[in-house]
Amino acid sequence: MRATFKEQNQQKEGLQRNGDGKQGNKLLKGAALLGGAAVLSKLLGTLQKIPLQNVAGDVAFGIYNAVYPLYILILFAATAGFPVAVSKFVAERVIEEDHPGAKRIVVVSSALLMSTGFLLFLLLYFGAETIAGWIGISQTVTAIRSVSFALLLSPVLAVLRGYFQGYQNMVPTAVSQVIEQLIRVITMVALLLYLVALAYDEAWIAAGATFGSVTGSGAGLVVMAVFWHRERRSLRVKHVRSELPASIEQKGGMEPGSEQDAKKAIAAGLETEQVISSWQWAKRITLYAIPVCLGAIVVPLLTLVDTFTMPRLLEASLGSELEAMRQFGLYNRGFPLVQLVVMVASSMSAVLVPAIAEAKISGRVDIIRFRAEMSVRLAWLIGLGASFGLAFLAVPINLMLYTSTEASWTMAVLAFTALFSTLNAVSASVLQGAGAIRTPANALLVAIVLKALGNVVLMPRWGIDGAALSAVIAYAAAAGLNLVQLRRSTGVRFALRPYAVSPTLGVGLMGGGLAALQGLAMLASAAWHVPERWSASAIALVGVAGGAAVYALALLRSGSISREELRLMPELDRKLASVLAKLRLTNRDK
Questions:
Q1: pTM > 0.85: yes or no
Q2: CB-based contacts of 564, cutoff 8 Å, min separation 6
Q3: Nearest to 103 by CA among 231, 219, 189
């Protein structure tokens, strides 16, 4: 009998381990799926701005870039923390196998956020003229009213995503994110072509572009509703059983109609309790979500500084509202490329937070320090190369994407926000893993103040070039504050050679190669009468690929990147390890 008990215990422990392993694999796969969907959604959202400028021009592009950050700020302030809160409380109910309780959380959260969304819709729609007055551009009124309708749909979408994440099912969130962004882009392009063909003015064209957020949110909500219906149908029998008292469950079943009567009795008896618990849930969810919402609005606030300062400053110096919006559109040309660089470079953040948090829990200070230094160095090297590469190729990239070379110098200056934005994103993730959660938000608040002051001081003298310079200063300050705190928290040290000497050599070689490429290409284009935009496109594409290759080889040859850095990116390491070893381009370890 003892042996039997021992065998049974071993079997239970084995099943528990297998269950934990499966659960861990499910979480990893879900996180990877969600991360991939987020990257794809951001890619679609970033690239959609290029056809808007190409078809509608810089004025409509400026209006769109003035209004959309305002919508994102309000949306984040209202809903950003609720998917996190809902997923947390739903997960707790799931552990207790209280599926009706999980459903109640969704109902309460939806009612709460729908009310908030409706109030914010009224604020934006009927206050559009007032808000446009704050911006200083009357042409933004139509776009503000257009995007306000999304606030009627986005809150419920956020709640349903949190519900499925509480069940550790990331598929609905991932699918809805991609569909939402895809429909948003399709709507924007379709309305853009339609309104331009009918010769609508820039204000209506920008409103058509922002209306994509409404149809995108609607499409995402439809997708989530389908998943919700399937989920509720699969759990319906289980929920009914959980609501019925054990005393009325009989081995042989019930008399006809007794089950229905029992349900009615239970519903009547629990009505007051559910009302009370609903108010309690509303309070708990709100208190948990508010800090997350406040933290989430910091990044949109930094973007919104330009919305509420640049148009007014430009109009004051140029004397024309139309020209002010055109200049604002020119200024925003450089940001899509910067966002792509930051998106790619900061994708390592998904690995950093759990890896460093794990080392912190185990008390391995040496591992925390090593991983923190390695992550920051990779961010520095990637951001530095990307910034200089975009700056060197600003003219051909500008002509390729936006059909003119206007504001190429502004784009070149803005390119360096890629370096500091990447450093800021990665260092913030490392600090989060190390437990210093408040520092990144505080650093961004400092950046907001510096950006506003920079615009006020520099724009009267240098226009949009001054705004670009103030952006670089603001992001550099945020990254610097994060790195100072990172050094205090982890004890990491930043040596001069891997951060300055070797990268300088790589940047020099890349710059020389790109200068030679552009000179030769211009001579060839003139001799063969190649159209200017075609020539610029060829230079930009070849320059990006060739410049990245030269810079990477220089870093590998000088030892700035070791095998340890490559192991942070398993796919790249697996493909390049044997080739680099044969070419002797990397040190084994550092």
A1: no
A2: 374, 589, 590
A3: 231
